[in-house]
Amino acid sequence: MKTLLKGGRVIDPANGRDGEMDVLIENGTIARVARTLPADGAEVFELRRGWIVAPGLIDMHVHLREPGQEHKETVATGTAAAVAGGFTAVACMPNTDPINDHPGITELILRKTAQANLARVYPIGAVSLGSRGEQLAELGAQKAAGCVGFTDDGRPVATALLMRRALEYAGMLGVPIIDHCEDPSLKGDGVAHEGYRAATMGLRGIPGVAESIMVERDIALAELTGGAFHVAHMSARQSVRAVRDAKMRGGSRVTCEVAPHHFILTDESLERPTRYDTNVKMNPPLREQADRDAMLDGIADGTVDVIATDHAPHHLDEKLVEFDRAPFGIVGLETAVPLVFDRLVHAGRIGLPRMIELLSVNPARVLALPGGSLAEGRPADVTILAPDAPVSIRASALRSKSKNTPFDGWSLRGGVAATIVGGRVVYRNEQA
Amino acid sequence: MLRSRHLLGIADLDAEEIQRILDTAEAMKEIAARPIKKVPTLRGRTVVNLFFEPSTRTRMSFEVAEKRLSADTLSIAVATSSVTKGETLLDTVRNLEAMAPDMIVMRHASSGAPHLLARLCRSAIINAGDGMHEHPTQALLDAFTIRAHKKRLDGLKVSIVGDLMHSRVLRSNIQLLNKMGAEVWACGPSTLMPTDLARFGVRPTTSIDEAVDQADVVMMLRIQHERMHGHFIPSTREYFSLFGLTPERLRRAKDDVIIMHPGPMNRGVEIDSEVADGPYSVILEQVSNGVAVRMAVLYLLAGQEAEAD
After folding, report:
1. For A2-52+379-428, which CATH superfamily applies?
2. pLDDT average, residue stretch A350-356
3. pLDDT per position as a tens digit, A33-46
4. Which residues pair with A419 in a beta bridge?
5. pLDDT exceeds 50 at position B309
6. What pLDDT sits at residue A1?
């Protein structure tokens, strides 16, 4: 079975490629990438002018909610949303019910992934049993079962000692520790960014330093242990500075990710267009303009390694409550690519190769995944992007089981034309 | 009439509307002086008082106001309602709406809860206090009381002292007083100041002497005993020594200063009994004025509903 992707612009930063090239896929792997390839019996996929052939996008921070919270999302609906959003692979967080701290749960997720047969799913296991911060989970067994990293996401790795041991132990296994950085005492029962907006609206605040204090702790421990530390959903300007400084100093393995809502929205969204809209409630919260700008700077200057969505589906009933009672989080898989195109690429902040690095090359590198590259012999995970396609985001049309997005009704430029996983076209956008 | 069919906060009122509510309240106050304190204005209208947080003063004040306007009233307190059975706020209110009330007066511990209902329900919503956000009828009755004594609001030095961070009374009062041209000072310990307080349109200070100095109005806010747990203050004793309003401190104020408190008071914590019960105190007047102001709000919002019909 052969497919020829014909006439697109290949952007493959991992192999230094950028130009008009054809891509031949054979038996689910990349067979050849070259200027003009003959069809030679292959099924030809004619690409429109301007379309981009990129290594499959990877969202390394997704909540698939299965097992235990299938009313919000399942592996099947979450991976359907992923491929519709251009992602050929996602890494799923362990804060399911029960917490994924055991190979039995990892195996269940992978079985469901095989049944859905859409995007690849890489489970992230819990650092500690029940993510309670008391006892290290069996990271070795979890890695053998398929976990590619560890986190207690939803909450921080509880103590400096546990984080230290986790970095040392995971370092031995060659996988990173991803930390949801947040000092619990400073977070308190906060529900929004601590700033003027929350203060006038009477919402309890979470200061930016609640995050950066924990980022600084973890950087110090990464330097001590040599383990790989990845900052999840970074939101505060102080955290960007801490990561930038650590990278400048060198000698440690520190990486970080930012979610689209943190480089696009600010806490002004608490008031406009709808006051107290629970679809702008997430953790970490939407911060102020200086923080949003720091994210943009970090993305442009290379401090930020990865754009990840923190896709956090919640049922409408759960979100249709008082602001301080609503759960944190928004869906992100199907809005990320248009937001990145419109707000970063077309806004002139980054070029297309950098976009592919942030969404594919770097997440693959951080989690040591086989993707992120169109090298011959690699699995044919490919995302075809349509940079000029007009996109109207409609919450009701999302494939995710949950519709909790603050971007409903937004019109953006740039979208996904098709998603190919293992050589198979799993999504095609007829509107692109 | 008012522009909005709800009263969610002072934020949504302009100076002219505030003026109209206060003027209407003057007329309503006159009713309280009559031997038969009842007018038929809201006859046949149903008002639900939905209190998700304990309240004596505000709830009673609304009930009296509704009864004086001849509305049919129904008061629901959280302990007896079905929210304790796991029902959502929206379901609770939709069930009430099935019985076709005209207005819902609500108090809720969550900031923004009345805004959610205003967006999703049919009834006119009157905010009787939402979390730390707004308490518009309190600010209106405070303004009414100040105006009764000073004949104006603009140019007055009004100092608000106490737990600024957690106070919805503060947030509503700042907005109202600013809209009416008063000069507002906000005084409290630095741990209990909201972020960016200066941007609220007040002069922030941690010195009660500076706040009281030449003040026309001193408004004391309640300090809750729980505040010791968040490391906000070390003790109520130290709080009183730094921020309590005593007769000595009051000497710096203007000769005709008035002392206000939204209640309930903690005597000996934020205010000395001698001040609370002294000649400058208008604290009980605030309570009587509360009824007149709430009658005015109910009347103006009901008039709106009638026009819409």
Report:
1. Urease, subunit C, domain 1 (2.30.40.10)
2. 98
3. 999 999 989 999 99
4. A383, A427
5. no
6. 85
User: Rounded to whole angstroms, how far apart are CA atoms A397 and A22?
Assistant: 33
The mean pLDDT of A69-82, rounded to a whole number, is: 98
Per-residue pLDDT tens over the stretch B255-291: 999 999 999 999 999 999 999 999 999 999 999 999 9
Q: What is the mean pLDDT of residues A161-183?
A: 98
A362: which residues sit within 8 A by CB, 6+ positions away?
Answer: A255, A305, A306, A372
Catalytic residue among B68, B135, B166, B249: B135
CB pair distance less than 8 Å for B89 and A194:
no
- Residue B168 has its nearest CB partner, among A196, A199, A202, at A202
Residue A293: enclosing H or E segment and its boundaries? helix A289-301
Q: What amino acid occupies position B229? A: H
Q: What is the pLDDT of residues A366-395, one digit of tens each?
A: 999 999 999 999 999 999 999 999 999 999
Whether residues B195 and A276 touch (CB distance < 8 A) is answered with: no
Are B88 and A196 in contact (CB < 8 Å)?
no
Global pTM?
0.95
- Looking at the predicted structure, is the pLDDT value of residue B82 above 60? no
A chain contacts of residue B50, beta-carbon cutoff 8 Å = none
**Backbone dihedral region of A174: left (phi > 0), alpha (psi from -120 to 50 degrees) or beta?**
left
In total, the C-beta contacts within 8 angstroms joining chain A to chain B are 67
Q: C-alpha A37: how far from its chain's center? A: 34
Q: Say yes or no to pLDDT of A151 above 70.
A: yes
* CATH, range A56-367: 3.20.20.140
Tell me which chain A residues have a C-beta less than 8 angstroms from the C-beta of B168: 202
Nearest-Å Rg of the Cα atoms of chain A is 20
Q: Which residue among A196, A199, A322 sits closest to B112, beta carbon to beta carbon? A: A322
- From the list B89, B165, B197, the residue facing A321 with the nearest CB is B89
Chain A CB contacts of B113 under 8 Å are 322-323
- The alpha-carbon gap from B25 to the nearest alpha carbon of chain A, in Å, equals 27
B57 flagged as catalytic: yes
Distance to chain A for B106, nearest Cα, Å: 13
Say yes or no for a CB contact (<8 Å) between A196 and B199: yes
Lowest mean pLDDT among A161-165, B162-166, B225-229: B225-229
| Chain A residue whose CA is closest to B196 | A196
Exposed (0-12), middle (13-18) or buried (19+): which is A129, by Cβ within 10 Å?
Answer: middle
Q: Where are the domains of chain A?
A: 2-52+379-428, 56-367
A276, A317, A321, best to mutate vs chain B, most B CBs in 10 Å? A276
Residue B157 has pLDDT above 60, yes or no: yes
